[in-house]
Every structure is written in C-alpha cells, then in structure tokens.
Amino acid sequence: MLESINYIEQYLIQPIESMLKNEELFPAMVYASIGIETLGALIDDKPIRAKAQSKTRFATALYHLFPNQYGFINKNSFLYEALRNHIAHNLIPSSLLNFIEINSASNLHLKKTGSQVDFVIEQFLKDYLNACRLVITQIENQSIRSKKIAF
Question: Which residues span the domain enclosing 43?
C-alpha cells in the first residue's frame, strides 16, 4: 500500500524524468498522457478504482492542475480524445495535433492553427511534472487528502 505522495514520486514523476534524461520524448508523452487521468483520480473525492471516471478525471486534472490553456483546448474533450484516447488505444496521437520541436517558439504550445492544435511535447511534459508536484504540495498542505493506493 502506497500513500499518494510516494506513488506520485515513484510512478508519475521518476519515469518521466528518466525518459527525459534519455531524450525519449514520445514514450514520455505516452506515459504522461495516461498519467493525467491518475492525477485527476488523486484529487477527486472518489475512490481510486471508481468506475467510468476516465474522461472526468482527465478533465479535472487539466482544469485544476495545468495552465489555463489546457482547459480551454480540452473544451468538448478535445485533448481527451485527440491525445489521451488516441495514445491509449492506438499508441498514435490524433492528426488533429501538430507536433512542434522545442526549437520553435514554445508560445505556440496549444495554439489552434486551422483544424489542428500545435503541441510542444517538451512543454507538455514540463506542465505535467509541475502538475504532479502541485498535487504533492496540495497533499502536504492538506488542501486535498492523501489516498492509499493498493497494488
């Protein structure tokens, strides 16, 4: 049985940091895309294993833990479908996402260009890690409660 903070550090932060160190951006994006839902599960008031919560928990994490543009872009579950679902079910992101190298201006991240949304993986991973650390801070200052996670 793990407490939330230990779980976040061991399973949500450390794997991403390791992949970033090895410049494995796509696997890190895949892992983080799934991890967003887990962050939502850690901050909501339902048990970790509550059924039929995927879309809700993904949105909860984006709206409460990520910069505002994520919630704006996720309107009508856009990021849930184009990023999370495509990655989780096909291991391929939607063609509605336009991946941009970090060498480009990072202010392009999550900007709409025609029917596509520009997506900077490095910025996404930075925002994801910040979201993980925000949950740890919220648990430490007791604004949310820690959940026990059984394997």
Answer: 2-95+128-149
How far, in Å, CA of 34 to CA of 29, rounded? Answer: 9
The pair of three-digit structure tokens given for residue 81, joined into one six-digit string = 């479908």
H/E/C letters for each residue in 52-72? Answer: CCHHHHHHHHHHHHCCHHHHH
Q: Is residue 134 part of a domain?
A: yes
Q: In 91-144, which ranges are continuous DSSP H helix? A: 121-140
Give the number of domains in the chain. 1
Nearest C-alpha neighbor of 94 from the set 104, 81, 107, 106: 81
Closest CA to 77 of 96, 90, 91, 92: 96
pLDDT bucket at 102, cuts 50 / 70 / 90: confident
- Return d(Cα 121, Cα 57) in angstroms, integer: 21
Instruction: Label residue 145 exposed, middle or buried (CB < 10 Å: 0-12, 13-18, 19+).
Output: exposed
25-67: per-residue pLDDT in tens?
999 999 999 999 999 999 999 988 899 999 999 999 999 999 9
Q: Residue 15 domain-assigned?
A: yes
pLDDT at position 1 is 56
Structural contact between residues 91 and 30, judged by C-beta atoms closer than 8 angstroms: yes
